[in-house]
Amino acid sequence: MAMASSVKVVLGSIAFAVFWVLAVFPAVPFLPIGRTAGSLLGAMLMVIFRVLTPDQAYAAIDLPILGLLFGTMVVSIYLERADMFKYLGKLLLWKTQGAKDLLCRICLISAISSALFTNDTSCVVLTEFVLKVAKQHNLPPHPFLLALASSANIGSAATPIGNPQNLVIAVQSKIPFGKFVIGILPAMLVGIFVNALILLCMFWRLLSVHKDEEDPAGEVVVEEDVSSHRFSPATLSHSASLKSQEWNSRLETADVKSSPNFSGNIDNVETLRNRLPSSENEINNVHSGALDSARNSIASKEEIVDVSSHKREETILSERAASNNTLRDACPTESLEGKENLTTRWKRLLWKSGVYLVTVGMLIALLMGLNMSWCAITAALALVVLDFTDARPSLEKVSYSLLVFFCGMFITVEGFNKTGIPSALWDFMEPHAHIDRATGIAVLALTILVLSNLASNVPTVLLLGARVAASAAAISAAEEKKAWLLLAWVSTVAGNLSLLGSAANLIVCEQARQSPYLAYTLSFWSHLKFGVPSTLLVTAIGLTLIR
């Protein structure tokens, strides 16, 4: 494609630069309007600058991709209501064997759920659960959050509905759902294994040391609880002097130690001890007087206790009779409530079974090669009808801002293509990026990797997809399919390179930072230390397995 006029090139580049800045840095100080408004601003500038006509802008919006994205979001919402992700969370804890085993389970379950329900949905639902598990077992959240985000990105590469860029590739390439999965599934499985292995190697000492420290802490807590029951403050507060022991020994013959008033009388006697006369007779007189008063008080209190205990027994018997009458009156109501609860549970179970059957039916239709957009929309509407209630609460959970973002991005990228800059850059790269050679695959993968982190993965696919496929089609039809799958694999795994590489990373980061259970900040550099080796190794190994 020839370069456009200088004015169109400059103005189109300005519009695309505005879109790129706001897409990558949605909260820039000079224009903090966010990604969605940024994409609409870029699209509007393309029309205002006359890089595109209004008709060309409308035509650039890919409705099949929007329909597929909308349908999969609605299906994911109903699956969440049907407790699908709750069951996945329980599977994480089923017979777990410690921190390392839990990390491997998170990698596997995150990858599978992302392949079926998109990586963003999986990260939104599973992040808080992972934080709950980490807090419950006193585990460091950092490795588990990295496992969740990175495995979600890798797993989402295996299916056309796993992430937005795969949706674009599936619609533009017209590769059947089944062939798409078969082509990338081996790379995804090996990639998950390698990613988990890297996580274990990097955090082995942290997880091992923590496990060794966790059990003794639990034992100490148990011992402290036992000690607190064994040594009460009342027992530890009794510390008598030698003189008080002698005084008590002289009162042993009285045999009134069980009297509640006796301790008070002893205290009174002890306070008068220093003023006692030296005569033994006077001491005996004082002692006998104290004993007489103690016996009188005991007798009077015993009479009061007898009367009060008799009244208490009568009150208890009357309360029991009243409660029995109340229980007899409430039995019919409770039985009706029990029947209603049983009916509600059965209806809930049937509805959940219907949701799962509709979802399985959608996957079967996709594997049969039917139109992906209409399969997803049909499944979404079937779930709406099956729910048999007002669909507004469920439909309000759809990310319409994401759909609007895609509309603006389609127009902006189409306008940038009209300038001729992407074609000129590809003409320069094409001789070195033929996928029938190992060096060509390496150059192509490196280009996609860099662009996906600079311009985001979906714009990269929109910019390079048709050009890479056309170059590969000149070799053979099989190479064209391989080119599309390579683009899907590298652009998806590239999201693990940095924290800003994919929306799934940002979702995990924000969810963890705002979590009420265990707030944790996943920093850019801590993610980069893991992301660089994981992305390079997983990408390189996957390239050898894609067919």
In round numbers, the mean pLDDT is 79
Biggest sheet layout: none
Shape: globular
Number of separate strands: 0
Number of helices: 23
Q: What series of H and E elements makes up the topology? A: HHHHHHHHHHHHHHHHHHHHHHH
Helix content: over 70%
Strand content: under 5%
Radius of gyration: 37 Å
The stretches of 5 or more residues where confidence is low (pLDDT under 50) are: 210-291, 297-308
Alpha-beta content class:
mainly alpha
**Straight-line N-to-C gap:** 30 Å
InterPro entries: Cit_transptr-like_dom
Subcellular location: Cell membrane
Domain Citrate transporter-like: 24-494
Transmembrane segments: 59-79, 180-204, 355-386, 398-417, 438-455, 485-508, 528-546
Question: How would you characterize this protein structure?
Answer:
It is a single chain. By secondary structure, the protein is mostly helical. The protein contains 23 helices and no strands. Helix 5 (84-93) runs antiparallel to helix 6 (99-117). The chain is globular, with a radius of gyration of 37 Å. It is a multi-pass membrane protein. Keywords: Cell membrane, Membrane, Transmembrane, Transmembrane helix, Transport. One of its GO terms (cellular component) is plasma membrane.
